[in-house]
Design brief:
The chain is α/β, with parallel strands linked by helices. The protein folds into 2 domains: 141 residues, Resolvase, N-terminal catalytic domain (Rossmann fold, 3-Layer(aba) Sandwich), CATH 3.40.50.1390; 68 residues, no CATH class. Helices cover 57% and strands 10% of the residues. The protein contains 9 helices and 4 strands. A 4-stranded parallel β-sheet has the order 2-1-3-4, with helices on both faces. α5 runs antiparallel to α6 and α6 packs across α8.
Length: 220
């Protein structure tokens, strides 16, 4: 049996706190306990999941893992948020004999996918081709779902800016309390690094210091 590694990724500097890492670490710890595993290494980083090339800890981890090793993630979005390149990387690791476990997405973890592919190998040509296509579709659909969620989130934030109170005569520099709408936007911002802090500051007409204060309040 190979080594088991855990990988945690966050999306923004504000998510470096215990709240974001804590949820992932709790899930990973529980998985290890339930499956009698010990992680050789727990990799943490705060880079976007849009690309693999800019993730230093991921690159180090890829150099360490060998055939028979396992990498555990809380969910598929911690692995990647890009469908096509994500699928290519998934299959590349699968072919190298490296297992990927997604605690919240078990149907696309490699043990389940390998079972489907093994079944496909035993079928006639038509059934084999059909099952292999189903496996590919299953992976791409899930990866695409993650990417689309990111794009929708960005669009909603930008739409909110265009329809903000500032355009209806709100006084510049007037600071409101932490409203439910602002809290919701901050939570969205914390989940996706591609959402810009400056956009939220413009939408709610608040200063950088105020925005930072509200981010800390939401984290607490």
């Amino acid at each position: 049996m190979g080594n088991t590694f855990a990988y945690m990724r966050i999306s923004t500097k504000e998510e470096r706190g215990l709240q974001k890492y804590g949820r992932q670490e709790k899930a990973l710890t529980k998985y290890a306990k339930d499956n009698n595993l010990e992680y050789i290494l727990i990799a943490k980083e705060d880079e976007s999941g849009k690309s693999f090339s800019n993730r230093k800890e991921w690159k180090k981890l890829e150099k360490l893992v060998q055939s028979g090793d396992t990498i555990v993630f809380k969910d598929i979005s911690r692995f990647t948020r890009e469908a096509e390149k994500g699928y290519q990387k998934y299959m590349e690791l699968l072919e190298k004999g490296i297992e990927l476990i997604f605690i919240d997405n078990q149907t696309i973890s490699t043990p389940y996918i390998k079972q489907l592919l093994n079944v496909a190998e035993k079928q006639n040509l038509v059934a084999k081709t059909s099952l292999e296509s189903t496996v590919k579709l299953l992976l791409i659909v899930e990866l695409d779902r993650v990417e689309q969620e990111r794009l929708i989130l960005i669009k909603r934030i930008k739409d909110g800016i265009n329809a903000s109170d500032k355009k209806s005569g709100r006084i510049t520099g007037n600071v409101d309390k932490l409203t439910d709408e602002l809290k919701t936007d901050i939570l969205k911002y914390k989940k996706d690094r591609t959402i810009k802090a400056i956009d939220l500051m413009k939408k709610h007409n608040i200063s950088r210091n105020t925005f930072k204060k509200y981010c800390d309040l939401v984290s607490e």
